[in-house]
Amino acid sequence: MSQPITLKLPPLSLYIHIPWCVQKCPYCDFNSHGQKEQVLPETEYVSHLLDDLTEDVKLVGNRAIHSIFIGGGTPSLFSPQAIHTLLEGVKKRVNLLADAEITMEANPGTVESQRFADYVKAGITRISIGVQSFQPDKLTALGRIHDENQALKATELAKSIGLNSFNLDLMHGLPKQSLEDAMFDLNTAITQQPPHLSWYQLTIEPNTQFHSKPPKLPEDELLWDIQEQGDELLRRAGFEQYEISAYSQTGQQCQHNLNYWRFGDYLGVGCGAHGKITLANENKIIRTVKVKHPKGYMDLTRSYTSDKKVVPKEDLPFEFFMNRFRLLEPCPKSDYSDFTGVPLDKTTRHNLDTALNRGLLVESINEWQVTPLGRRYLNTLLEMMV
Amino acid sequence: MTQEHNILEWYAATLECAIYQDMRWCQLSKH
Fold it and tell me: Which of A330, A339, A325, A333 is nearest to A366 (CA)?
């Protein structure tokens, strides 16, 4: 009979969702809502976020928070004063580490120099800029409200205001995009010397404008070339890929994102935010989901939480590997039982052996690591782990 | 190859885990 395993507490992060945008982009399936000229209820919403957090803190007690990510939507539509109030309120409610990474997403069309500087004063240490492309026709096709000059200006600002780091979000596989177009975007981004670059392929998602009226996207062969040459270009420029769609300069990985994939815990506050919390004393892991629509979320007669459930033990092995194998770093074997609370059973061992035999994975005494082949065929690898 | 690896969507469809489907872009892919 196997020994009972005690769940250990992984690092804890906080995600805060701000759901409004100036307008909804045709490819976006995030929980976001066009502003439609209305004045944003930022004071009211911040107050709800903090009340929501007060409830969630009961699940984690005094555990340290290692990182915060304010995502959207377009959080930079909120004033620096609102972000200041939000972060001060967070600090009063949780044990936020002094060196915590605090990221906020910003749209290049919604920033100006003083506003950026004031976000830093409010406590933001890192900004993630949704550039997507530096080519005007691609930005138009994506429905973005900014142009390439605003994207460059936002990048310059990010470099000048004392942030610890910043990220550029860039897409490829765009409508009518050639290999040269994609490399132009990457080269332009590299010239800006961002500490972090998120470079991901456009996919058409259900419930988007692109899904109901699909644009013509590059063929698979071209997508392959873009990926191969882009990877090489980034590598030569000194960027290290650490996750399927994330590249960074040395030591500049997004700590918040790493925590997701390392099967860490996170509180999720705000409309539609998700949380994953380990309750070590009860030997279980729970997931929380918050009310999705702003109107329902801010309805005082309702709870902020729309769903809360325990992750079944039988789902934990796959969940762990699905998350962990997205990262290129080695996975300590001890993390598996520490953070799932289940032993490595015969089925899981057999699945791992199959992946090892196929060259998708390598292992040492203490670690597993996805090989370059496994990275390329991650779906195949993960299907083996079910 | 689809580099983005729609594994979360695939997982959602296969195991009917709506949470992962919903999360696919909302949170986990933010950097």
Answer: A333
